[in-house]
Design a protein that fits this description.
alpha/beta; Rossmann fold; 11-stranded mixed sheet; 5 helices; about 20% helix; globular; binds zinc ion
Length: about 300
């Protein structure tokens, strides 16, 4: 049995207490959730496929529930089973709510990402510890009012889950950065050179299109969330081999990345992601030793 968020389900206004539970078989509960990213559409072989109904609509795909090292794991490809959901059209609320409904308390979000710094190389993993939101128009809260509820988000990621992810990656021989700021852009387009140079000059390490609001919605449900960014390419403003955060560097820049290159790179590396996930899940202590479940604060009355 896993620990649960204090007070059970969050007091989301207008959503019945048992919303989404309908139709979930007993053997489909899980304690750990894993999101699949671009090029990562399946995780486990022996699974129960569960279609979860949520008050926010359908999640990106049926959820595959199975076991890793005796732990119950729910896998959900955030872009859908055939990559039919582009980043700004993903139903993030339904995805997080569906995992929550199955009993998930910890979520790992592997994702494809670009590097904004020369020392963060393609093939590296970055366990992010900070996030900058540059998206717009995405449904990014379960608290729609009328009573306001402002959730603390100073530290967006679970320290315990993130530390373990970085430790297991390093132990597995992966070149991993145990911290990094991800700037989340709206997409689906990639950045202009000016945008990329600006992000880089801020000292941010990673650029991605899906971490927000995925990571934030986990927080609103009291779930732990860790991001494992697989670097697929240098963003357009980065000079490989150059120095960090030096806008005065010459502007001999890398060629803009293409979607096909990102997908191909991630697919070629998906086994490394899968191996790390197996290792991480096996290493997770049964009980959470963090404050993520309390971070939502007192619910609105
Ligand atoms: Zn946590």
């Amino acid at each position: 049995m896993t620990d649960s968020a204090p007070g059970g389900r969050p007091g989301v206004r207008g959503v019945p207490e048992n919303a989404g539970v309908r139709g979930v078989p007993e053997n489909a509960t899980a304690e750990i959730g894993v999101f699949g990213g671009s090029g990562f559409y399946s995780f486990l072989d022996d699974v129960t496929r569960v279609e979860v109904d949520t008050p926010f609509g359908a999640p990106s795909a049926p959820i595959a529930v199975g076991e890793v090292a005796g732990r119950r794991v729910a896998f959900l490809p955030r872009h859908g089973a055939r990559h039919e959901w582009v980043p700004h059209r993903i139903n993030y609320r339904a995805n997080l709510w569906a995992l929550y409904t199955l009993g998930v308390t910890r979520v790992v979000g592997p994702c494809a990402a670009g590097s904004l710094q020369p020392d963060v190389r393609p093939g590296d993993f970055v366990v992010c510890d900070q996030l900058v939101d540059r998206t717009w128009g995405r449904a990014d809260t379960f608290y729609e009012g009328p009573v306001p509820h402002h959730v603390s988000y100073a530290d967006p990621y679970c320290p315990e889950l993130s530390r373990l992810a970085a430790e297991r990656a390093a132990a597995g021989g992966i070149r991993v950065h145990d911290r990094g700021t991800v700037v989340v852009v709206q997409g689906p387009r990639f950045s202009t050179r000016a945008e990329s140079l600006w992000y880089r000059a801020q000292g941010w390490e990673v650029i991605n299109m899906t971490q927000y609001p995925e990571a934030y919605l986990a927080r609103e449900l009291g779930l732990c969330y860790a991001a494992i960014a697989l670097i697929t390419d240098y963003d357009t403003g980065v000079v490989p081999g150059g120095s960090r955060v030096s806008p005065e560097d010459d502007l001999e820049q890398v060629q803009p990345v293409t979607q096909a290159e990102v997908f191909e790179f991630f697919s070629a590396n998906v086994d490394r992601v899968r191996t790390l996930l197996f290792d991480l899940i096996a290493a997770l202590p049964p009980k959470r030793d963090c404050t993520c479940s309390e971070a939502i604060g007192p619910l609105p009355g």
